[in-house]
Amino acid sequence: MAGGVGSRFWPMSTPECPKQFIDVFGTGRTFLQMTFDRFKGVVAPENVWVVTSAKYFDIVKTQLPEVPVENILLEPCRRNTAPCIAYVSWRIKSKNPNANLVITPSDHLVTDVIEFQRVINSALKFTAETDAIVTLGMHPTRPETGYGYIQADLQEPSLVNKEIFRVDSFREKPDLATATEYVRQNNFFWNSGIFIWSVKTIVNALRVYQPELSSIFENLLPVYGTDKEQAAIDEKFPTCENISIDYAVMEKADEIFVFPADFGWSDVGTWGSLHTIAKTDKDGNNVIGPDISLYETKNCVVHTTEERKVVIQGLDNYIVAEKGNTLLICRLDQEQRIKEFSCN
Amino acid sequence: MAGGVGSRFWPMSTPECPKQFIDVFGTGRTFLQMTFDRFKGVVAPENVWVVTSAKYFDIVKTQLPEVPVENILLEPCRRNTAPCIAYVSWRIKSKNPNANLVITPSDHLVTDVIEFQRVINSALKFTAETDAIVTLGMHPTRPETGYGYIQADLQEPSLVNKEIFRVDSFREKPDLATATEYVRQNNFFWNSGIFIWSVKTIVNALRVYQPELSSIFENLLPVYGTDKEQAAIDEKFPTCENISIDYAVMEKADEIFVFPADFGWSDVGTWGSLHTIAKTDKDGNNVIGPDISLYETKNCVVHTTEERKVVIQGLDNYIVAEKGNTLLICRLDQEQRIKEFSCN
Questions:
Q1: Contacts of B295 in chain A (CB under 8 A)
Q2: Chain B touched by A336 (CB under 8 Å)
Q3: DSSP string of B12-66?
Q4: Strand pairing partners for B110?
Q5: What region does A138 belong to: left with phi over 0, alpha with psi -120 to 50, or beta?
Q6: Is A223:A229 a contact under the CB 8 Å cutoff?
Q7: Closest CA to B130 of B200, B193, B194, B82
Q8: Pick from B296, B311, B328: CB nearest A328
Q9: How far apart are CA B278 and CA A70, in angstroms?
Q10: What is the mean pLDDT of residues A176-198?
Q11: What gap in Å lies between CA B137 and CA B187, rounded to an integer?
């Protein structure tokens, strides 16, 4: 899934080039490319599918030359994750009804790719043998209020994989007290938004819980892979309900499992989370840019993307981000207002 | 005089385009152009001379199309004000030995141009009738430690102009206690660096007090106005002593006068002085740029020169200045370190 707009990462992330297409860490690889790299050896490039907005087609093609262009599915408008997943599921079903899928955001960070691959392979084996819906739950390391949580029934591991448990409930982003309580208990996990299931399972689940949505993509079976596909999608996709896969399926279905895991995951949803994750200097500054000089500056995130000279003196706990024609200077503790800033 | 490098105004002012060539106030006119404008009706454009660095020739020609190009004198290197003034004085003498001169920096601000012209005309009348050296002294409005001061003998006005007084002494930039004492007394004035004298007077003064310097420009009399002038200047100018006109003449000569005046003058030498002078919003911000949004920001100077979107949240007492490929963020009270920042 590569259709997000990454509005909390403005101005690095813009509607023209959102977060998943950006090399936020200065490593030479964008989030999308890192996501692709993470599946090397697990999924062959010709089996990688990217669902994105029509306007990002060229970016995806350029950033992932290994992926066949016909595997880049283009949404004419944004309709949240359920229509996106329904589209790619029926599209893959039309090619291979026995396919086994991993659904993943393309703008997250995973630091322990070896463990990630072990978990993914283990989960794929599980969904190949069962009709389970599996979510990856991340062991919480702090009472994060920016994530949803999954409550697991740790008393009841699945029969075929002892690392996988039934889900008791999905919980929305909690307040701090609730999050602290979740972390204190050991059966709550961050909802990573990574799902594993067979095409059969997800198609059946959508048919049961989202019959309208399902009929839209079911009816398009004759055009998938033909030169009529895009026109049909452009016509029908906008009629889909704007709904997340969590609401559409997860919170309704029975056979939902969680695979608690720990592979150094972050959604890097905000500048603050980047500051938490990324390498900082001795003064707590995370600095990415070709020519940045800091004086009496600490706990700042400083990102520039151009060949630009930046001198900063006397800042504590600020974001300084510059991209193209835009400069943001903002206290880190006020970053929830970035969306507001970017719109004015 | 338009050869300065304006290092305290970095990054707006750069060696490639220093302060005098910049439209700091966003009015559409640079300091150099405002200086030219200030003399309209007093000095005909063909009698305006600009002494600048060779590398700024194109800028001056572009910014002052009214000034004949042969009136743009080019220094091959920087040698402070005395060689600059000596050069232009002999050069003008070669054309008109009876000329009456105003010497002025080109990077200062004057807000009351009517009063400025009255003072200049009055001073020019005085120097046309006498062999006096006249400096303009500004009534101090605060104990500024960034300016030199002129101590006047207010008991002894000149015979022909009751607004003009003999100078008792020139004082270097004082400390705050001394500056406060100067302001408390009423006979100390800021040294504006604006001088009025006849060509005869300055040439004679230079001959007496700076014989070496004088002989250099005296010897070039045969080449002034010829196609050999620049080559001769390029050869001889670097041999001049690096010395200010204050040291070279003012502090040595006898017939020195000061014209105390009050026409809204500032040398706008620093970001802080710009902040003091320029229009601020209700939060004390001085903002120049096409697209700047401020949130919870006060007492800041924000200057951008490009078509750039800038969002600033939560800054108090900072300079944010952006030009070309350079961004500076610096506490206003640390601006004396800008020269250090710009060199690293």
A1: 334, 337, 341
A2: no
A3: TSBTTB-GGGS-TTSSS--HHHHHHHHTTTTS-GGG--EEEEGGGHHHHHHH-TT
A4: B265
A5: beta
A6: yes
A7: B200
A8: B311
A9: 59
A10: 96
A11: 10
Give the dihedral of Cα atoms B119, B120, B126, B132; nearest 10 deg. 110
Signed CA dihedral, B157, B160, B163, B165: sign only: negative
- The DSSP bridge partners found for residue A138 are A190, A261
Can you say how many angstroms the Cα of residue B46 is from the centroid of all Cα atoms in its chain?
21
The owner of tokens 């707006």 is B12
Dump pLDDT digits (tens) for A138-156: 999 899 888 999 999 999 8
Residues in chain A within 8 Å Cβ distance of B320: 329
* Helix ranges restricted to H, A20-112: 31-38, 57-63, 81-95
**Residue pLDDT, tens place only, B139-194:** 998 998 889 999 999 998 999 999 999 999 999 999 999 999 999 999 999 999 99
Contacts of B64 (CB under 8 A, 6+ apart): B32, B33, B36, B48, B50
The reported pLDDT for the residue numbered A250 is: 92
Compare CB distances from B327 to A310, A337, A344 and report the shortest one's residue: A310
> Closest Cα partner for B123 from B278, B291, B258?
B258
Sheet strands (E) in chain A: 50-53, 72-75, 100-103, 109-110, 133-138, 149-157, 165-171, 188-198, 256-261, 265-266, 286-288, 291-295, 301-304, 309-313, 318-323, 326-331
Contact B307, A325 (CB under 8 A): yes
- Asked whether the beta carbons of residue B325 and residue A312 sit closer than 8 angstroms, the reply is no
Q: How many CA atoms lie within 13 A of A188 on its CB side?
A: 22
Quote the DSSP letter at residue B148: -
**A217: three-class secondary structure by DSSP:** helix
**A76 near A238, Cβ under 8 Å?**
yes
| C-beta of residue B4 within 8 angstroms of C-beta of residue B107 | yes
Q: How far apart are CA A60 and CA A52, in angstroms?
A: 8
Q: Do A306 and B320 touch (CB under 8 A)?
A: no
Within 8 A of B335 by CB-CB distance, chain A residues are none
End-to-end, the C-alpha distance of chain B in Å comes to 28
Q: Is A285 exposed, middle or buried (0-12, 13-18, 19+ CB in 10 A)?
A: buried
Q: Do A327 and B318 touch (CB under 8 A)?
A: no
Test mutation, A291, A292, A309, chain B, max B CBs within 10 A? A309
3-state secondary structure of B303: strand
Residue B156 tokens read as 């002894």
Residue A214 has φ and ψ, to the nearest 5°, of -60, -40
Distance CA A301, CA A19 (A): 16
Strands B188-198 and B100-103, bridge-based pairing:
antiparallel
Cα dist from A280 to A276, A285, A288, A330, B278, whole Å: 9, 5, 10, 18, 39
CB neighbour class for A136 (10 Å; exposed up to 12, middle 13-18, buried from 19): buried
Question: What one-letter code names the amino acid at B291?
Answer: D
Peptide bond into B290 cis (omega under 30): no
Buried b (16+ CB within 10 A) or exposed e, B156-193: eebeebebbbbbbebbeebeeebbeebbeeebbbbbbb
- Smallest Cα–Cα separation from B164: which of B193, B201, B124? B124
pLDDT over 90 at A272, yes or no: no
pTM: 0.79
Report CA-CA distances (Å) from A94 to A203, A212, A217, B117: 11, 19, 11, 86
- The DSSP result for B273-286, as a single string, is HHHHHS---TTS-E
- pLDDT given at position B343: 76
Are A116 and A194 in contact by the 8 Å Cβ rule? The answer is no
